[in-house]
Amino acid sequence: MASILQIEGLTKSFGDLVLFKNLSFGISEGQRIGLIAKNGSGKTTLLNILAGKEPHDSGEISFRRDLRIAYLEQDPQYPENLSVIEACFQSGNEVTELIAEYEKVIDSTDHSRLNDILQRMDVLQAWDYEHRAKQILAQLKITNFDQKISELSGGQLKRVALANVLITEPDLIILDEPTNHLDLDMTEWLEEHLQRSRLSLLMVTHDRYFLDRVCSEIIEIDQQQLFQYKGNYSYYLEKRDERVSAQNAETDRANNLLRKELEWMRRQPQARATKAKSRIDAFYDLEKKAKQQQQAGDVRLAMKGSYIGNKIFEAQHIYKSFGDITILEDFNYTFARYEKLGIVGNNGTGKSTFIKMLMGEVAPDKGQFDIGETVRFGYYSQDGLEFDDQMKVLDVVQDIAEVIDLGDGHKLTASQFLQHFLFEPEKQHSFVYKLSGGERRRLYLCTVLIKNPNFLVLDEPTNDLDIVTLNILEEYLRQFKGCVIVVSHDRYFMDKVVDHLLAFQGQGMIKDFPGNYTEYREWKEVQDMIEKERQDAEKQKQEKPKPAIEKPKDDKRKLTFKERKELEELEVLIPQLEDEKSALEAELSSGTLSNDDLVLKSNRIGELMEEIDEKSMRWIELSDL
């Protein structure tokens, strides 16, 4: 496979913090690479460097000359006054920049470059850009193209940004957490879309099912170094374990040798020092190697659990709606002791609203939640990152607890506790504003858990957390001696943590399913198939043979004479307009027209496209009568 991107000796640091050093790897045509690293290791920074949004300290980045790149940022931003379709022309990709250049030339008196621009627009199929944009947006369930960016939810905004990436069919797509804020249906649609395409891909994601099914190679940044694995996420897990075990075994041998060398160094007479210099140098090399013990980042979250009684909470005849959107309708539920419940559903079905009602942040329209006296909530919300940026990491935790009781006779200081959350001592004394997005999430999770809750409510806890922290959190939740409610779009996380689901299906419909997400998905596919077969059978049963002369239905208005005449004229006129448009496009591509003719015919094409759309809509309207 031909190489499209090559990176040699890439280094990036912020002050004294070195994110990565001398990274070297390449991307070939059709290669799909997943990038894995702990939070704060520079994943997003590396993607920003490759997308040209950040500089690097040293190293070389070489792109194939004609390479087209599209970049999906973790938190895309657009001017709030733009409409959805206008945002698709503000993405700064090659096609939108060419369209802007074309419009600028058309509006100017200098048309010397117009012929070249028209040829490039033909090559890039720029004339059909808006049509393709609307097509992709519709597939992503964005149908109100005139809706303002300011009115979009986080999930809708992510889908608009994703459409901008996919419209131009680039050679290389760089994706930073593409599944954040996407509901499960959209995540699975994107997964299938990328599996079918032939494009090259470099991606950061915490969604391990997505990673496993889409990527064919994994690269990991660990201790400022890069490790490559020629396989998917499952293969990576296996080979990484082998690498860590081998590295730890080597370090153990170095430690054993170090102890012997240390004894020798202590016994060594001063007079022999010059004769044993090589051995002294070897001692310091061993000492350095012994300190390189591979840490898997074990976050031991086994905390002392506070007592929780038999009564947890009861939802009694809960009603909630926002205008025409029904969230809950006469909802009743009794939560059991030690229950681990997952909540799934598309964006807008009311998952987070349900959680906020339980936590008392939003009042139901009718009904109530009766919560047990012994319940102590630990609430991790989507928008709970309200830290003082000028505080140090250690101070944030010490403000909650100086000492944390583990419940087994052992206690941890706030500093020791933070180390279990992968905050090294130097990081603990850093200010909060210096933390990456994932590190801030990890700190927030820490502040929730150290309060010793017996009922954890986690609203999208997986967003921005690295895979190492997710693994540890999953292990903790499985062993947690209390109750858990998790709202998440992370299928892998849900499968490992919950024992049953509430599936929010929209308009107040909620399915209580006894199993994890994969089991629910399999059940749903069977139910959808049964329902489709039932509808097909019902349709066939209702269909009757048509008489030779079909009588007009009484409930369908007949076309007037004028409308029938108009329909006949449209059936002749629309093909004529299409033929004229095709002829003009051929003339524009011929290279034989003068500049004035080019301008006139370009303007005429625009008029024709509008007229064809208008006439076609009218034809559809009349045909349905």
Describe this structure in words.
It is a single chain. This protein has 625 residues and is α/β, with parallel strands linked by helices. It folds into four domains: 3-237, P-loop containing nucleotide triphosphate hydrolases (Rossmann fold), CATH 3.40.50.300; 238-290; 313-525, P-loop containing nucleotide triphosphate hydrolases (Rossmann fold), CATH 3.40.50.300; 564-588 and 597-623. It is 44% helix and 20% strand. The chain has helices at 43-50, 84-87, 94-107, 114-123, 129-139, 154-167, 184-196, 208-214, 233-267, 277-290, 351-358, 393-398, 414-420, 425-428, 437-449, 467-479, 491-497, 517-542, 561-590, 595-623, and strands at 3-14, 17-28, 32-37, 58-63, 69-72, 172-176, 200-204, 217-222, 225-229, 313-322, 325-335, 340-345, 366-371, 377-380, 403-405, 411-413, 455-459, 483-487, 500-506, 509-513. The strands form five sheets. The chain has a six-stranded mixed sheet with strand order 5-6-7-3-8-9, sandwiched between helices. A six-stranded mixed sheet has the order 14-17-18-12-19-20, sandwiched between helices. Residues 293-301 have low confidence and may be disordered.
